[in-house]
Amino acid sequence: MDAILLSIGTELTDGAVADSNAPWLARRLRELGIRVARVVVVPDELGAMARAVTEAAREATLVLATGGLGPTADDRTHEAVAAAFGVDFVVERATHEAVERRLQEERGTAVHLAEAQFQIPRGGQALANPLGIALGFVARLRRLPREDEPNDPEELRAAELVAWHTATLAADEALLAVLPGVPHEMRAMFESSLAPLLDTVLPPRVPLRSAVVRIAAAEATVQRALADLLEADAPLSASLTLDEEAGFVALHFTSTDATVDTAEAERRLQTAVATVRERLGEAVFGDAEETSVAHALLERLAARDYTVGLAESCTGGLATYLLARIPGVSAYLQQSVVAYSNDAKMARLGVPESLLDEHGAVSEPVALAMAEGMRRSAGVNVALGITGIAGPGGATEDKPVGLVYIGVALPSHSYAVRRVFTGDRAAIQRRAAQYALDQARRALHDAE
């Protein structure tokens, strides 16, 4: 069973905002046994929107659009659906008035909301918005035979809307679902309203069993080690994706063989994951979609009941932020210092002036001294020291932009690693922060 996702918004086609909705929806739909055949990004132009939804309705069982439901002039999803399927829209007045009353009570002042945010197609079904204002909606579509489609290219009709009911879709029907473009509103509406409805309305399907392995290694390294698992005729479908933010790799396995039962599919997936762990060892840091290096480090700290402190220079506190955003971190993260200047490194971390004079701030001895100084002053079990050149300036002949030293101080010993990262200033900082956390994670494993 296939779905086509439509991500609506000129901010997406212009590159001003990245589309985070489609990847999330593709993962959730896969869990429900629905394969995403295509993702289409559409600007806020009525003609382009109407054509996109029409073409999708011709091909897919589920057409799921996000965006364009707000009160502004460029929110034109309602118009596009009306043009594509020849349907008019009605205002859900009871919901409109109820939301206005609720907001008035919360804010203590009169609230007047645009009716456009409460429109649904006549014969469609509203989807409540638990975290926002604009309603989503679903509608059943009956595909028109080709001979019944209009001859005029300006008339886009490929399907017609039929009255809403919850029986399973017929072979000539499709489901149109339209959700808000705001990611947290979209996700809440999907989980609370759309996902249960999909189970009722869509034909029976076999859930696509899948597994993910997150790997702190270069993509080429992973491909060489797992070439046989990545072959097109392997028992499981496998795909590698590079996490640009961190420079790490996610490997997704999916069981697409409809002839095997759930237990056999799960056995194949677990065998594949075990093979990856065996071949790549400590480079594997997680086997869940949302696992990050920071999560993996905190798990190791918790297992040992260890505390951690960070001394950052070129990363400016980013490594600390990656840890601090995880709930429960306060039991393990004790202290963080951004020591950018040499004076700060000496005063806050006890880095000897002689080291700075002899080796410079960006050096292995200084990274070690930063980590060891943090471990002493904070009284933590593990400490990191990060110093480098994030650019674009500051490079010398022997110290290029992207050069970073990471010091790790443990109860038993200390060490430092040297890396040269590529990219702009922000990319270098992100990758250095992630790599530093991964070094701490690996160090705790090696010390076991």
Write the SSE topology.
Elements: E1 2-8, H1 10-13, H2 21-31, E2 35-42, H3 46-59, E3 62-66, H4 77-85, E4 89-91, H5 93-107, E5 119-121, E6 125-127, E7 136-143, E8 159-162, E9 173-179, H6 183-201, E10 210-215, H7 219-225, E11 237-243, E12 248-254, H8 262-280, E13 284-286, H9 293-304, E14 308-312, H10 318-324, E15 333-338, H11 342-349, H12 353-359, H13 364-378, E16 382-388, E17 403-409, E18 414-420, H14 425-446
Parallel strand pairs: 1-2, 1-3, 3-9, 14-15, 14-16
Antiparallel strand pairs: 4-5, 6-7, 7-8, 7-9, 10-12, 10-13, 11-12, 16-17, 17-18
The CATH class designation of the largest domain is Alpha Beta
Structural class: alpha/beta
Overall pLDDT: 92
Global morphology: elongated
CATH architecture assignment of the largest domain: 3-Layer(aba) Sandwich
Looking at CATH, which topology of the largest domain would you report?
Answer: Molybdenum Cofactor Biosythetic Enzyme, Chain A
**What is the multimeric organization of the chains shown?**
single chain
Number of helices: 14
Domains, number:
3
Low-confidence stretches: none
Total strand segments: 18
Provide the gyration radius in Å: 27 Å
Termini distance?
48 Å
